[in-house]
Amino acid sequence: MKGMIDSHAHICGQKLYPGWREITAEAKEAGVERIMIVCRNEEEARRAFDLAERDSMFDVAAGLNPNDILKMSFEDWDRLMELARDARIKAVGEIGMDYSFYETVVPQVLQKEVFVRQMELANELKKPVIIHMRHAAEDTRRYIKGHLKVPGIMHGYSGGYRAMKEFLDMGLYLAFSPAVILESENEDTKKVAMEVPLDRILVESNAPFKAPTSMTGKVHGPETVAGVVDYICRVRGIEKEVLVTAVYDNYRKLFR
Asked: Taking the CB of the first residue and of the last residue of the chain, which one, N or C, has fewer CB atoms within 10 A?
């Protein structure tokens, strides 16, 4: 089906950028009309600007992911934040909180400081945010409530049904990734996909991360949003055209 929008793909990262031409062609063949390239550093953003000049299907977002904080120098951080002011940057993100267990753990207090500063920058610039949240729903909600004044996207939403209404009340959209397919037997995940209002729903590939089960072990691209659309339509009992149109309208509201 044509007209699909991938609201979150890391096309300019190390895994996908070398093959961006093939990846773009495969996405178009699958019916993807627009892709938000999410950039985690200045180099990725510069690459994304180049792709956006080559093809109007690309939008660009940039921000400091919580898992990258310790990898950045103060100079890198300053340049990335200054870059967010560029008119070609449509959103600040992905930003947020991640309390998963990793080999290198970023202190929570530092994650909070960086998250809050980036929300305040988005407020100043009046740009939407793209929020990363993993095993940190309570703190993420609290910091958003205390600081965010612009709309945004809960990327790869994993906050569960109980938290859904609170995020919606804060003016946020929920984006579903191939992880939804991986977790399709999870009743809480299924309930969110069934009941999130159509005027607040988005889909994403999160490529190349969290591939659908059929592609586990392979690098996947934006074409996988087609599977996300299929899953959501199946659990909601709606036609694909209904969902694709809703996602298109929601994306345009955020990034008009």
From this structure: C
d(CA 217, CA 38): 22
Give me the chain's average pLDDT, please: 93
Spatial distance between the Cα atoms of 49 and 181, rounded to a whole number of angstroms: 31
- What dihedral do alpha carbons 85, 200, 95, 160 form, nearest 10°? 170
Closest among 57, 66, 81, 62 to 3, alpha carbons compared: 57
pLDDT in tens, 62-121: 999 999 999 999 899 999 999 999 999 999 999 999 998 876 789 999 999 999 999 999
Give the span between the Cα atoms of 221 and 209, in whole angstroms: 9
How many angstroms separate the CA atoms of 32 and 75, rounded?
Answer: 36
CB of 204 closer than 8 Å to CB of 8:
yes
Q: Which two tokens stand for residue 173?
A: 């959209």
The structure's pTM equals: 0.95
Closest CA to 57 of 81, 21, 15, 93: 21
Query: 109 is written with which tokens?
Result: 């207090």
Q: Which of 8, 6, 44, 7 is nearest to 26 (CA)?
A: 6
> What structural domains and CATH numbers belong to the chain?
4-254 (3.20.20.140)
